[in-house]
Amino acid sequence: MCQVCQTPLLHRYLWSTGPQPITLPEGTRLADRYQVKAGGIVLDTRPGLAPEPVDEVPDFCLPYLQLSDFPLHVPRPYALVPAVPELSLHAPVVLLEEAAISTTAGTPEVLPGLAQAWATAPGLRQLNWLWQMARLWQPCVTQGVGTTLLTPDVLRVDGALIKFLELRADANPLAESPQLLGSQWQSLIPAAHASLRPYLERLCDQLSTGHIATASALVAQLERALLASTEDQTVTLALATYTDQGPTRQRNEDACYPDGGTATALTFGTGQTDQPWPLMIVCDGIGGHEGGDVASHLAITTICQELQSLRQEAVSRSTRLEPATVTNHLHRAIRVANDAIAQRNDREQRQARERMGTTLVTALIAPPFLYIAHVGDSRAYRITAHGCRQVTLDDDVATREMRLGYGFYQQALQQPSAGSLIQALGMGSSQGIYPTVQHFLLEGEALFLLCSDGLSDNDRVESFWQIELQPILAGKRSVKKAGQHLIDLANLCNGHDNVTVGLLQLQPAPCEPDPQRLLAAAAIAAPEPLVMPSPEQVPPPAQRLRTIFWGGLLALGVGAGAGLWWWHWQQRQALMPRQSPTALAPAEDSLPRPSSSVSAGKLLQVKQPMAVNGASGSARFLEVHSTPTAGPLDQALAHIPPGSILKVEKRQVIADSTAWISIVVCSVPGSSASPESASRSDSPGGASTSGVLATPGPPLGPGDQGWIPEATLMTLTESTLTTPACP
Fold it and tell me: Are 215 and 176 in contact (CB under 8 A)?
């Protein structure tokens, strides 16, 4: 309990690990604040204070940061303890938060291992675990920690969820093929559930023979198996939504769907296609008296309309939709909502901070999966008997710094601009919006909380979940009563903002796979997953505010005017107030896939800008990003002038199976390629409304580095024999 405000403090239990084995006696105190508990668990005795800053992130910590897009599976570096030779610590120790630790019994303990839980788990849960491991294989191998999935000691389970205790570095680079994963799974066959064993034998054989040669094909195969296994499943659902303007605000700019005060329960079969799809949305409007409430309600109305057409498609086809189809439609629905708000901003001639917008988090049940999508800092949490885990990552500056590997998240939170948003709906064209969409199998009881920052600020959810939310899972409190309590708690302990909460309790009935259906699913050739096409674009707004980040500073060329220049400069400094976020990432485009990967050391020359879809008034420039990510591309944007020579550093395939190329600029042409020689425009896609070619941002120079999607790179470059000296 805080001695000043009497607010409950987090019991922050951490997992200790490092490049060398760690053995410390219980009771040892590290850095005068971290108390060693049994078995490598450490308690932060000063949770109200920020950890000591890390001057330079050690190499062994980087994979944790690069895999931060998987918060439910991968723990997050919290603090770094320097070497203490007198304690036989000859290397730094990293303390991990969100680790595989349970406090259910009142005493912290490591979650059970996969090997331990496997023998007694139902067949559907075993299949769910395999699917999660398959999805994690390629990102882990890319980051040099694929061995984690081959090491039983670090594979832990939180009910239906696979969690890593820590990451294990690969002694040698592993092949991206999941063949090794199949070899490891052979050991699981003897203890596999009888309903799953024949399928698992077939699956391991397909992996060993190369019939399934890629991680994406393995994931597709397992998702078909999950669809076949849940045709007879039933799920009981209870939901409740509440919203309140709070004690200090003049109006409520939050909005939710269903309307605040709704509480309902239903039971449905996941194999039925003619039933409503449960949907929950929480939006936090931006713009104050300028229309934040309008934006939040417009987003909800638009998304509900768009998703209705998706459900009608499922009904007309009398079949359940594959995850790629639902994910693609969610992306499109969110972008359509974004453009609806942006167009209204343009019609009302709103500029800069006058523009209204909204954050968004939504939960959609399209059986047999639950989909969570978000933009901004409205959050989703997953609560089980063992813990409360944040499902979404805020689209803010602190998260961006962590993703880039610049520092630990707790350290990034200490920046003055840490909570400044990177993107929100309505601030510009949907070409700059990258929603994050995740999906989870409806298997195992769980409670999902969706909320605006009126509740999540100041760690209120993490501090109170055991008191307010765990009783729901124990059957001692309804979601209706808990939702009301959360509103009261937010107003009492925060009180600075509107607050909205949505609770979704899921209780799937036990369901075992049918062996014959599983074998039939395995007999289908495993295709590569669908490549998500560009969403249909609502006609773009006439004005677009582009935000440019590149290491926190970049010189901005001549702007459209002093006022717009000043606004861009503030955005680029990452000092943007929460009332006016803008998106940083370009939308995916329908580009041809390269026939083969580029190799490290290859030299490429940037071609002239290419017309987009044959349009004479727009052209595509080669744009570079600070990091590859399957989430929102919230890093800096800049362009590389035509004629520049690039050298390929390495290739990386990320979670959504998109290949990215790391490049370094070797040389750029003379002043003719400078941004000053081209007209500037704020219209999306680099198109100039006057028909004059406009560059999409400042150019890079020799020595600059960045990441570019492989498909884009191969479309806008060509091989060269030029051999300039690369910095």
Answer: yes
3-state helix, strand, coil in the chain (%, to 5): 30, 25, 45
Identify the pLDDT of residue 692: 29
Phi, psi of 571 (to 5 degrees): -60, -45
How far apart are alpha carbons 205 and 523 in whole angstroms?
12
- The per-residue pLDDT for 529 is 45
Which secondary structure element, helix H or strand E, spans residue 456, and what is its range? helix 453-456
Residues 6+ apart with CB under 8 A from 385: 104, 159, 470, 473
C-alpha neighbours within 13 Å on the C-beta side of residue 598: 31
| Per-residue pLDDT tens over the stretch 381-395 | 999 988 899 999 999
Nearest Cα to Cα of residue 601 among 526, 681, 666, 655:
666
Task: Give the whole-angstrom CA distance, residue 32 versus residue 43.
Answer: 12
Residue-wise pLDDT tens digits, 199-248 = 999 999 999 999 999 999 999 999 999 999 999 899 999 999 999 999 99
392-416 residue pLDDT tens: 999 999 999 999 999 999 999 999 9
For residue 75, what pLDDT is reported?
Answer: 98
Indicate if the pLDDT at residue 482 is higher than 60.
yes
CA proximity to 81, closest of 32, 48, 37, 47: 32
Mean pLDDT of 186-206: 97
The answer to whether 711 and 591 are in contact (CB under 8 A) is yes
**Could you give the count of Cα atoms lying within 13 Å of 177 in the half-sphere of its Cβ?**
13
617 touches 688 (CB < 8 A): yes
- Spatial contact of 445 and 473, defined as CB atoms under 8 Å apart: yes
Band the pLDDT of 254: cuts 50, 70, 90.
Answer: very high
* Secondary structure of 336-405 as H, E, C letters: HHHHHHHHHHHHCCCCHHHCCEECEEEEEEECCEEEEEEECCCEEEEEECCEEEECCCCCEHHHHHHHCC
Delineate the domains of the chain, giving CATH numbers in brackets: 234-376+423-510 (3.60.40.10), 586-719 (no CATH)
Q: How many C-beta neighbours within 10 Å does residue 61 have?
A: 23
Cα(649)–Cα(602) distance, integer angstroms: 8
269 three-state secondary structure: strand
- What does each C-alpha distance from 482 to 11, 245, 466, 490, 494 come to in angstroms? 22, 18, 12, 12, 17
Per DSSP, the three-state class of 609 is: coil
Quote the DSSP letter at residue 671: G
